[in-house]
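Hello,

Our lab assistant flagged a job as stuck in the queue for most of the afternoon. It eventually completed. Since we weren't sure the result was trustworthy after the delay, we are filing this so someone can double-check. Below is the sequence as submitted and the structure that was eventually returned. Let us know if re-running is recommended.
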Amino acid sequence: MERPTALITGATAGIGHEFARVLAGRGHDLVLVARDLDRLTTVAEALRRAHGVRVEVLPADLSERDQVERVADRMRRPDQPVEVLVNNAGYGLRRHFVTGEIAAEEKVLAVLVTAVMVLSRAAVDGMVARRRGTIVNVSSVASFISTTSYAAAKSWVTVFTSALDVELAGTGVTATAVCPGFVHTEFHQRMGVRGRVAPEWAMLSAERVVAEGLADAARGRVVSIPSRRYSALVALLRHLPLRAAARVNRRLGRSPRWEQVPATGPSDGAA
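-- returned structure --
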């Protein structure tokens, strides 16, 4: 039998790389998407050797609409169907919206929102016709906290995924938003944050995020929040009175870590 294929964006590091490793271990062929061709090639070769699966590499900058469309075209190929789509690529800016450059904000929005929308739409036609498929959109616990434009974009991902799952009901296709908190990846380092971003008890491993996310996707769960501590936090935030929630958001948004400084650029493997 043909092995199922998974397409993963931001697949060369962090959460995206862990999705690739786990799915390859489960016998999925892979299509890996990221900006850095050299890094893609290295990761692909390691996964081929370790798991004996086919691995395609598809270099693309998902802030560029024409390059997103190249990935969407691969999603639509009927001769090599994609059974699992993982929209993981993303990055943040270490600056406030009101003091940052709007062009930089637009590029982040293109990766976090437009690419997720376009690739999810490209996936569903074939998946629905085959009556099977899984879409995993990597969001964030930040999507439940009104602190930054990054949080706003991730809020879109979480709500979009929930709405998509409603439309897909009865088709055999599922959509799951995985919403991790702080994770040990290169995400914050790429933003220019130095030192510890959170106490160790608040940090999750990429292995845990992916394991719980895939388990929840297999159950058909729409929103996956890895770890009980973050599930409890989100439950609390959802039930706070509006005024109390606003005070929490303002306090979090005043963190001194978010002064206007240049970031080192997007991370292919962070979300």
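-- support follow-up --
The delay was a queue issue, not a problem with the job. The result is valid. The beta strands are 5-9, 29-34, 55-59, 84-87, 133-138, 173-178, 223-224. The CA atoms of residues 3 and 28 lie 6 Å apart.
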